[in-house]
Amino acid sequence: MTCASSPVRGAEVWALLAASLLLYGCSSGIAAPQDGLPVVEACFVSASGVVPVQLEIAGTSEQRQKGLMGRTSMAPDAGMLFKYREPRSASHGFWMYKTLIPLDIAYLNEDGKIGSIRKMVPCPSASGSGCPTYPAGVPFIEAVEMNAGFFLEHGIGTGDRLAIGKDNCPAN
What we know:
The structure is a single chain. The chain has helices at residues 7-27, 61-66, 150-153; strands at 39-46, 49-58, 78-88, 93-95, 103-108, 114-120, 133-135, 140-147, 161-164. By secondary structure, the protein is α+β, with helices and mostly antiparallel strands. It folds into 2 domains: 1-30; 39-168, Protein of unknown function DUF192 (Jelly Rolls), CATH 2.60.120.1140. Strands 6-5-8-3-2-1-9 form a 7-stranded mixed β-sheet. It is globular, with a radius of gyration of 21 Å. The N and C termini lie far apart (72 Å). Mean pLDDT is 85; it is low at 1-29. It comes from Marinobacter manganoxydans MnI7-9. This is DUF192 domain-containing protein. InterPro entries: DUF192, Saro_0823-like_sf. Pfam families: DUF192.
């Protein structure tokens, strides 16, 4: 009797394959993207104009820690807004552990004004200790991660601001 002619044997092979894939996925070190975060319409306002964006909000410690880990792509106008209850120091920063796409990050004050922008590259290290951090360089209470090159492409820089909510975005 061959494996193909035995339904029990075939089921055993499929079960073994499924278990192997599950174990590989769990041990590969790649984090799954987080689902179910609230999304807000917002815009960056600069001398170059108004740039509408869709931002997922990471407002809890767990959501901020996971951030954009595991994402393989992001829409051109999409990003993630990291909100803190208390201001962070200039030495506080972000890292790219388990983050697969290059990002830019803007650090914002309580008025939504951009204090600094940093370019961040994916970290191939198997452990977080092998990944660099990207400190803000200025105190901040929010940060926005966008695809690499977003801010430069749209003429957005320090001193420009983020407005949350479509009603707070001036017409172009």
